[in-house]
Specification:
The protein is mainly alpha-helical. It has one domain: Up-down Bundle (Methane Monooxygenase Hydroxylase, Chain G, domain 1). It is elongated. The two termini are about 25 Å apart.
């Protein structure tokens, strides 16, 4: 999926942070934390998952939907940018 070593490191770092956030949810539940604390932990984790999803979808659009081996038209490039922007706004 990751097309460069740097992208792979970036994605794996995101996943590792998400793992820590999921563990925080588990601790909150295990320790009978206040509902607000547990809800906050879940919200943070959900935001991180949405950000990871946006990153993977953006990479897919830029590398598979718009073929980098062929120069996309101005309209295709703009459509890809519009789609990436819409996804990031939706996943906030």
């Amino acid at each position: 999926m990751a097309h460069t070593i740097e992208e792979k490191k970036k994605l794996l770092n995101r996943v590792r942070r998400i793992r820590g956030q999921v563990e925080a949810i588990e601790r909150a539940l295990d320790q009978d934390a206040e509902c607000s604390e547990t809800l906050h932990a879940i919200s943070v984790c959900r935001g991180a998952m949405d950000a990871l999803m946006a990153e993977v979808i953006e990479g897919h659009i830029r590398l598979h939907v718009i073929d980098p081996a062929r120069k996309p038209t101005k309209e295709q490039s703009q459509a890809a940018e519009d789609l990436v922007h819409a996804l990031k706004v939706y996943l906030r």
